[in-house]
Amino acid sequence: MQIIFVQLKCELGHSYDVAAELVEQEGVSEVYSTSGQYDLLAKCYLKDGDDIGRYVASRVQKLGGVRDTYTIITFNAFT
User: Fold this and answer.
1) Looking at residue 72, what is its pLDDT?
2) I need a labelling partner for 74 at 20 to 30 A (CA). Which of 19, 42, 44, 46 fits?
């Protein structure tokens, strides 16, 4: 299982709409509103071997109201 985080910039006034659509996407487990350069942070689970770039381009960037994304690829979770 691969875990990635995707930060999203949204069109003004559309962050709640984008968040609502995003949580319905396969693989998205959590969506947080954030302050700073990006409006939302999504935690996504992908199957091993899935193409991360294709997932972000087809499942996240195509949502209406998304202006920009920044993807963080994770390696280890420390508990």
Assistant:
1) 98
2) 19
Q: State the DSSP string of 15-69.
A: HHHHHHHHTTSTTEEEEEE--SS-SEEEEEEE-TT--HHHHIIIIITTSTTEEEE
Q: How many structural domains compose the chain? A: 1
* 53-to-35, 56, 78 alpha-carbon distances in Å: 25, 5, 25
How far apart (Å, rounded) are the C-alpha atoms in residues 7 and 70?
5
pLDDT tens, position by position, 26-68? 999 999 999 999 999 999 999 999 999 999 999 999 999 999 9
Q: What is residue 67's predicted lDDT score, i.e. its pLDDT?
A: 98
Determine the Cα–Cα distance for residues 21 and 60; give it in Å rounded to an integer. Answer: 9
Please name which of 26, 78, 21 lies closest in space to residue 55, comparing C-alpha atoms.
26
Q: What is the CATH number of the domain that holds 34?
A: 3.30.70.920
